[in-house]
Specification:
Chain A has 21 helices and no strands. By secondary structure, chain A is mainly α. The chains are: A mainly alpha, B mainly alpha.
Chain lengths: ~575, ~45
């Protein structure tokens, strides 16, 4: 990185942190710290929920995913607008009316303390683990730039986020997220323009997408119904709907965001605008990945994008074997370039037969390149069995640092930092609020004063920050980060959503039935997930429906028992 | 749905929240159609 990039990076980060600290200055109470005094306008709610969901993972993994497997991931978000509508009709008015701090508070009013504690606990486990992954993602950036192990960078980033969150509270999180999302939109727009500009002369946006399309990277839609396909229109609409509804309706990191809205209308508007812009935004991020793929058809990519692991291998006794692999990789790249020129000519001449032939030839060459890469990763494992052989998250980053102009590199890296800070701050804030409001205040210390609860919230944030850093240190062993977060969520969200749907719509079901149903469902979902019975998005549907069905059945079974107990 | 009628705040450009919801569903349909055309055109 150049001095200019460092200056842009540091100034952007400092400006955001100073802004957050400035906005959250002054004495706070627990209501202000956890709910921001419910004073936020709709655009703040919208940007805040977007920033919470769009973590650094979004900007690191998604373009990498498009580069490796195409754009099918966009279908994952198809259920989001529908989920926003259900939220606005059901969840938002209820939460506002009951003036709850957390979503789980409502469950005690509707069912009992056990159900509240169970759902709060499931949330704490899920969010605690996934926030670790959220912290790990940006630590990759510093690791690549400074060429040091991710352990040190994870601790550094995690420490920075903890400081910011403990001091700021929810109000600072919302204000900084507004600024962060504005910078993110501008930066991504600039990155998209620069990628197109970097393509060889004669290759414009249309041709670049066309070439990527011929190599299977523009597969945005798949209408085939397949239980085991992760991303289809149906898994996105149905599975995605349940996942997004669970995430936004029952995950405190999101509930906490729209509860800051100054009224039901402002919270609704924020969520609906999120439903309006989220899918196009995700499409454009994936499109950047596709353009990076097209760029690397004209510029030889490294045999492995994680420079830290590659350097480790270069400095080992396996260096001669690596050189041999790199030479093979260079040869296949030359062959690919030749075939690519043929494809370009066929495209220009609109010769469909030749286009189809070249497509097959290029796909074969692509497979050969993949097998050479496999040789390199095998060698890495031979050299170090603990080596991280998944470089998906490094693809976009490697491109940014190597090819983007000075200044823009610093801005894009700042964007990834900001995105991570925003979502991690929301997560830590929600972990603290659930720990304090649902566990500490309800089960451990019911009589404490407001300043004591505020103090407990700050300590809970520090504690959860520490836990998340520990989790982050293990995140490097997990493949694609964005998928890992979603898979983890799918194990738990369906069950929690089922509990909330029973609470809202099945008035005859009581706490005991739903509590037992939730535990049985969670066991069933874990078994289905472990044995990969279906693609992970469907676990949300299974979990949710199972809770509803089991609750109804158990209510029928337990009811006579309770009646008998009441008899003399 | 009773709650919606009580809410004094209405969304901009449309007359009710229900209209906004319908607009959002329509938008989703348009996006899926556009992505389908994108996939078919470039594959």
């Amino acid at each position: 990185m150049s001095n200019l990039d460092w200056a842009v990076l540091i100034c952007t980060l400092l400006a955001i942190v100073v802004y957050g600290v400035y906005k959250s200055r002054g004495a706070q109470n627990i209501q202000g710290y956890l709910l921001g005094n419910q004073s936020m306008p709709w655009y703040s709610v919208c940007l805040s929920v977007m920033a919470t969901q769009a973590s650094a993972i979004t900007f690191l993994s998604a373009p990498g995913l498009a580069y490796s497997t195409g754009m099918s991931f966009v279908q994952f978000y198809f259920g989001l607008p529908l989920a926003m509508i259900v939220l606005c009709i059901t969840f938002v008015p209820i939460f506002h009316r009951l003036k709850v701090y957390t979503a789980y508070e409502y469950l005690e009013q509707r069912f009992d303390l056990n159900t509240r504690a169970l759902t709060a606990l499931l949330f704490l486990i899920q969010r605690g683990l996934s926030t670790g992954i959220t912290i790990y993602a940006p630590s990759i950036i510093l690791s690549t730039i400074l060429n040091i192990n991710t352990t040190y960078t994870t601790i550094f980033i995690g420490g920075l986020v903890i400081f910011y969150t403990v001091y700021g509270g929810t109000k600072a999180v919302s204000y900084t997220q507004m600024l962060q999302m504005t910078i993110i939109f501008c930066g991504l727009f600039a990155a998209g323009i620069v990628v197109v500009h970097l393509l060889p002369s004669g290759v414009g946006l249309g041709k670049a997408i066309s070439i990527a399309g011929k190599m299977g990277r523009t597969n945005a839609i798949d209408f085939k119904f397949d239980w085991n396909n992760q991303y289809t229109v149906w898994s996105g609409l149905i599975g995605g709907f349940f996942l997004q509804l669970s995430y936004f309706g029952t995950d405190q990191s999101q509930v906490g965001r729209y509860l800051t809205g100054s009224s039901v209308g402002q919270s609704r508007m924020g969520l609906l605008m999120n439903g309006l812009v989220k899918i196009p935004m995700q499409f454009l991020i994936l499109l950047i990945g596709v353009l990076v793929f097209a760029f690397y058809q004209y510029n030889r990519p490294p045999v492995f994008f994680n420079s830290f692991e590659l350097n480790k291998l270069q400095n080992s006794s396996y260096q001669p074997e690596l050189k041999q692999i790199e030479a093979e990789y260079a040869d296949i790249f030359k062959k690919k370039q030749h075939e690519l020129q043929q494809l370009e000519t066929a495209l220009d001449q609109k010769d469909q037969t030749r286009v189809d032939q070249q497509r097959i030839v290029l796909k074969e060459a692509d497979e050969q390149a993949k097998s050479i890469r496999k040789k390199a990763t095998d060698l890495m494992l031979k050299n170090d069995p603990k080596a991280d052989i998944n470089d998906n998250n490094y693809i976009f980053l490697s491109f940014v640092t190597k090819y983007l102009p000075k200044g823009l590199i610093g801005l894009l890296i700042a964007i990834i930092f900001l995105a991570s800070m925003g979502s991690t701050a929301s997560a830590l804030n929600s972990l603290a609020s659930t720990s304090v409001i649902d566990i500490y205040k309800r089960l451990i210390n019911k009589q404490a004063t407001d300043p004591q609860y505020l103090n407990a919230s700050r300590w809970a944030t520090i504690l959860w920050g520490g836990v998340c850093i520990l989790m982050a240190l293990y995140a490097s062993k997990i493949g694609n980060l964005i998928e890992a977060v979603n898979i983890l969520g799918s194990y738990i969200y369906g069950t929690i959503l089922g509990v909330f749907l029973v609470a809202f719509y099945l008035k005859k079901v009581d706490g005991k039935a739903v509590f037992v149903a939730a535990i049985l469902t969670e066991i069933a979902v874990c078994v289905c997930g472990y044995y990969k019975v279906v693609a992970y998005l469907w676990l949300n549907v299974i979990g949710c429906l199972l809770v509803v069905v089991l609750s109804l059945l158990l209510q029928q079974i337990l009811k006579p028992v309770q009646h008998k107990k009441g008899q003399p | 749905m009773k709650d919606l009628k009580k809410d004094p705040e209405l969304p901009p450009f449309v007359k009710s929240w229900q209209q906004f919801y319908r607009l959002l569903i329509l938008w989703l349909g348009v996006l899926i159609l556009l992505f389908y055309l994108f996939t078919k055109y470039f594959e």
